[in-house]
Amino acid sequence: ESVLAKPQHPLLHSQRFSASPCAGDQSLFTSLYTSLAQQLPREPMEWRRTYGRAPKMIHLEANFVQFKEELLPKEGNKALLTFPFLHIYWTDCCDTEVYKSLVKEDMLRWQNSLRAHGSADWVIIVVETNDNKKKNKTNILPRSSIVDKIRSDFCNKQNDRCVVLSDPLKDSSRSQESWNSLLLKLRTLLLMSFTKNLGRFEDDMRTLREKRTQPGWSFCEYFMVQEELAFVFEMLQQFEDALVQYDELDALFTQYVLNFGAGGNFGWSGLLLRRPIDMEKRDGIQRGEASLLDLRSYLFSRQCTLLIFLQRPWEVTQRALELLHNCVQELRLLEVSVLEGALDCWVFLSCLEVLHRIEGCCDQAQLAANCSHTVGLWAYATDKLKSLGELCGLVSEKEPTSEDLNRTVDLLAGLGDERPETVNSLQSPYKKLKEALSSVEAFERHYLELSHAAMEMYRAIGRLRSARLVGKSLAEFYMRKADPERAETFLQEALKSYVSEGWSLPVTHTRKQIAACQKLLGRTEDYLQTSALLAGDVNLTTEERKHFCQEILTFAGKSGDQSQKVTLSMGVFTQLTRLQFRPATASVHSGAVLQVELTLRCLMPVSVHIQQLAASIHFDLERGGTNGRSKGTQRQTNPGTVEFHQSNSSAGPPSSSAAGPPLELDEIQDRSPSDNSLNSTGVVCKNTHLVMRRHDSHSPPDTPNCVSPPAVAMKEGAQMLKVQDVTLEPGNNSIIFTAPSGQPGTYTLRQLYATVGQVQFVLPHIYPSVQYEVYSQEPQLTVEPLSEPLLAGLPQMVKFTLLTGHYTVKKGDALQLSNTDTMPILPSSSCTARISNPLVGESVLSIQSSEKVTSISLPPTPPYHTLEFHLEVLCLIPSGDERPANERLTNGEMSIDCPWSIYSTLLALTFYIPFKTKHSLLSAGNRKYIQVCVQNVSDVNFTLAEVKLTEKQHATLELQSLNTKTQQLLCSKHSVFCLWEVRWKDDLPSCLQCVFSADFSPLNQDISAFKPFHYQFQFERVTTLYSVRADILPPAGEQHCRSGLLCGLEVCITRLTEPAEGELAEDSKTDTDGLKTTKLMYEVADSSSNWAVCGKSSGMVSMPMAASATHKVQIEVMPLFAGHLPFPKIKVLKYLPHTAAVAIQPDPDSCVENDSLSLLDKALDDQGDTASIRSRGSVHSVGSGDQQQKGVAMPRLEPFSPGQVFNHSYTQQVLVLPATDDHIMEVNAT
Amino acid sequence: MSAFLHTSLDVVEEKISAVGKSLGDQRELYLGLLYPTEDYKVYGYVTNSKVKFVIVVDSSNTSLRDNEIRSMFRKLHNSFTDVMCNPFHNPGDPIQSKAFDGIVSGMMVQTG
């Protein structure tokens, strides 16, 4: 019986085991130990777990210890690592006697002690060897009998608790098999016991945890219990489970801290991650003496170890950062009093330690690729070092004071001695901190190193903003070290990014730093520019703003030479918000007053006196002539007020600068090509390229908050808008300039200057561009009717408008109008002229008329005024034929000579004759009447009076008026008819020359307003030569005509007068019997299809040229309808035979006549008139023959003049009865 | 303080681009803890139209868990959407909505 020594401590992670105390034959066991220990963990076992946790394959490793009664665990044992999971009794006894006498007793004792300690996990191993058998041949029992005996003695129902191992030291298949089954058995039993005991342990642990609210509960005690579990998992290589235990502890601790608080004195030596288990701290915890930081440190070191086992180093960094933040918070929460800077030390050391640990387990490439995980620690360490440096007086130009040194010593003392692990290494967080705090130079070196490392990393992973923040912190360091030059670059970089992203508060903060920096550097201009920006920054307090404003004013007030003048951008000082022109057209004639009102929003906190405010002007000679009139109208579109939309200053909210250009939208319509119906409609944005432009990729170019003021080129323009001594109050100010307007042209406002002592604020570009125009105008004379249309025959008003332009009308200047006969100017004494701009006054015009020229003296008028006067003119109506057809008269061309020009102005006015007249001759047998129709074509109503008709040549002729009224109303667009009967004594002259005359005036005007109107006309061949009488005779035996029956038409042509002289010569010929005859052609034509002409419808008659000569013609006609039918038309025409025509001059009308004849023929054709065909044939044959001979002589038909033939039966009607047997009624409904 | 905010945008961008690559449209708007510092915790949230919300919580405030922050963001987002739906609101102008102010200050008071 011997006992193996048990380990004092749980074995470390590299070993896995389950402790198994052994009893029985020690020498036998010793011989088998090595191979047993080796072979046991070789095969994995499936570990089924309680609480539904997933089964796992684990390798079991065992530590064998000799059985001692005192090693058995007592009640309430919390140690799991040293727990004996399985008790084994080894025996090689094969002798029954020996068994009975010794072994059995020993076994019984062993069993009893096990039972006493409540352990039911045991196994008895019987080893059989052939040697043993051979040695004791006599007492040999069958092998099985010993085993059976043991089984029956001890394992009453658990046969598996006794195992046989055969020939363990032999190399035979039998021995191998027996080994395997033993191992399997051992593993199974071990695992069973392990699971059972672990479960019990976990239950106990939970019970313990539940008691945590009871008084006297110790976290450290519980910590040890749960850590035991973690160790077990760790040894089973279940790191995940182990980590869970620590995480649970961590969470519980946080809770515990929050609920109860813990603490005490502690050192700040930082995390220690080099050892897998920091036994020093663990002991502290075990003793319940650990401080909060100790506990946290220990927990984290364990978690770190496990995470690295789990190949999750990046989680370590993340957890580390969380831990550090958390610890700092917890200490604050617990109000633990700590030496100032101690926490910083702890954090700094811990950061470096974690980084060191990570670097130790990763290669360079991995580290570089995972900067994003480590950079937080770097930055944190940098931060902490900086605050330590500041605390210890290391961040300054000077050496630290003794007080600082004392503090440093205290801090370093708190670190304690360096740990043995790192004492010998060249670099360690401990050494680094110590060195950094040793001197100003060393601190600077370390701090810069860390800062740059952090910045580099941030840049590498694209966190530029973070990099800039580190830079800014670095800049603060440099400022403390009085090295503004280096600080500025970092600050400017940070500022640029804040400005471009519109973060106003950081902008203000950084700008303040820059201002301090620039002041130190002595860069006056930059400093003043920054000061101006800050003075207008609403994020600052008024006091601060006043301070910066005063900085500028102080500089401005310094008397110095010219070279010290400083030019600053105006945008930061004051903003041009509005510009207003008066007059609003922004267009004046040269010399006129044009005012420009600027609205400036002053951003300064106090009122600022400005010596001079000026705007430079670019002058452009106007293109395209000097006619300001058209330009002036064009200007109307440009409003007189220009609003300047400020891209907001840095201090403003970021959104407004990001608003971008306004959308330009257009409507689109998609129409179907076939029927133009609307398919779809929508809105398109025309300037997408501007609107959608990325704003974050580049800073907008128009922000005035550039870091340094823009290069301002001051253009000294010859012309300027200037105001002296203005005081700008904070907020909006209105300043009025008077703009120069001497020369005509375009004036563009370019730049704005404000001079305050030595400082000049310049707005380099006024945008949108603002310009005004000064124009010069030529004098212009227009003459137009006062009212349209001008009526001829009546005095009409004409308006003269003179725009004087640049010309001054002097006294004695006159317009010379050349007189024309058709349009006299009616001088009037009361003619006044109006001079306006807008209204100046009136003055009387004097008009002198001579024979050729009318001279109008103009009153003196200043330039750019309008002179207006009315003149009465009359256009005479020409009587008779020269009158144009469209009643339009143009008064020729009147020329006006103006004093300002050597050229005459031609004046053309169009007048309209108000009336249209027509005349006609009416006959009744021999009696003659003359009718005149006057139509009013104008829009005016007139009164007609004194209507008269006279004949010029024949005094004997009497024209008797049949008009009853002396005055007649002639309304617009109406007509008046007048009638006279012609009476004569001897002979009626064949030619009458008449003059119609009337007085007219517009309605409701007095007698004096009447104007004469004349109308001449002429009648020829007035006398009635023939009368035609027609009669329709019903068929024989009938009383009335019947439709469908032929009736007779009797036409009787009678000569009424003796031949006149002219007539004889003209168209008569002497017959063979000496009687003078003339040939007439008659023709019956029924245009309304009432009649059918049967047989001859036309014919020739020879009429003797003597009074009362009569010719009768009988023609058969048939009425086609019943009723009162008008007579068919009978035409009588002169027939001029070709022989007679020889003497007549050919005239172009002949052809027309011929045409009418053939038309006539055509009509006759329809009725099948053979005679007419014949006659046509003859006519044609003759005509064609003549044409061949002479080309001019052909027979002609000539109509009589109106009044020469009088038709008695012109509108006569005859009654036609329907056909007798008509039983069919035809009804035409139309 | 606003410097933190500014730098937290770095992380926002990083997260957006990372999420954009992996999930496409089906992304979670809540970005989680962006930027822990000693004194503050910065949480981020990005709408589908890339409007970013950031909530900064004092580190000592332990009552606010991830879920509470998430619901705060959701509330904020809803209210913000309402503001944007206002036809009189010009996108880009500072928000001047009493309702929005109320929601925000309500959350502030609630979290204390």
UniProtKB/TrEMBL annotation, chain A:
<feature type="compositionally biased region" description="Low complexity">
    <location>
        <begin position="1172"/>
        <end position="1185"/>
    </location>
</feature>
<feature type="compositionally biased region" description="Low complexity">
    <location>
        <begin position="649"/>
        <end position="662"/>
    </location>
</feature>
<dbReference type="Pfam" id="PF23036">
    <property type="entry name" value="TRAPPC10_1st"/>
</dbReference>
<dbReference type="GO" id="GO:0006891">
    <property type="term" value="P:intra-Golgi vesicle-mediated transport"/>
</dbReference>
<dbReference type="GO" id="GO:0034498">
    <property type="term" value="P:early endosome to Golgi transport"/>
</dbReference>
<feature type="compositionally biased region" description="Polar residues">
    <location>
        <begin position="628"/>
        <end position="648"/>
    </location>
</feature>
<protein>
    <recommendedName>
        <fullName>Trafficking protein particle complex 10</fullName>
    </recommendedName>
</protein>
<dbReference type="GO" id="GO:0005829">
    <property type="term" value="C:cytosol"/>
</dbReference>
<dbReference type="InterPro" id="IPR045126">
    <property type="entry name" value="TRAPPC10/Trs130"/>
</dbReference>
<dbReference type="InterPro" id="IPR022233">
    <property type="entry name" value="TRAPPC10/Trs130_C"/>
</dbReference>
<feature type="domain" description="TRAPPC10/Trs130 C-terminal">
    <location>
        <begin position="990"/>
        <end position="1217"/>
    </location>
</feature>
<dbReference type="Pfam" id="PF12584">
    <property type="entry name" value="TRAPPC10"/>
</dbReference>
<dbReference type="Pfam" id="PF23604">
    <property type="entry name" value="Ig_TRAPPC10"/>
</dbReference>
<keyword id="KW-0333">Golgi apparatus</keyword>
<keyword id="KW-0813">Transport</keyword>
<dbReference type="InterPro" id="IPR056913">
    <property type="entry name" value="TRAPPC10/Trs130_N"/>
</dbReference>
<feature type="region of interest" description="Disordered">
    <location>
        <begin position="1170"/>
        <end position="1191"/>
    </location>
</feature>
<dbReference type="InterPro" id="IPR056917">
    <property type="entry name" value="Ig_TRAPPC10"/>
</dbReference>
<feature type="domain" description="TRAPPC10/Trs130 N-terminal">
    <location>
        <begin position="22"/>
        <end position="316"/>
    </location>
</feature>
<feature type="domain" description="TRAPPC10 Ig-like">
    <location>
        <begin position="782"/>
        <end position="911"/>
    </location>
</feature>
<feature type="region of interest" description="Disordered">
    <location>
        <begin position="622"/>
        <end position="682"/>
    </location>
</feature>
<dbReference type="GO" id="GO:1990071">
    <property type="term" value="C:TRAPPII protein complex"/>
</dbReference>
Automatic annotation (TrEMBL), chain B:
<protein>
    <recommendedName>
        <fullName>Trafficking protein particle complex subunit 2-like protein</fullName>
    </recommendedName>
</protein>
<dbReference type="GO" id="GO:0048471">
    <property type="term" value="C:perinuclear region of cytoplasm"/>
</dbReference>
<keyword id="KW-0931">ER-Golgi transport</keyword>
<dbReference type="Pfam" id="PF04628">
    <property type="entry name" value="Sedlin_N"/>
</dbReference>
<dbReference type="InterPro" id="IPR011012">
    <property type="entry name" value="Longin-like_dom_sf"/>
</dbReference>
<keyword id="KW-0813">Transport</keyword>
<comment type="similarity">
    <text>Belongs to the TRAPP small subunits family. Sedlin subfamily.</text>
</comment>
<dbReference type="InterPro" id="IPR006722">
    <property type="entry name" value="Sedlin"/>
</dbReference>
<dbReference type="InterPro" id="IPR044760">
    <property type="entry name" value="TRAPPC2L"/>
</dbReference>
<dbReference type="GO" id="GO:0006888">
    <property type="term" value="P:endoplasmic reticulum to Golgi vesicle-mediated transport"/>
</dbReference>
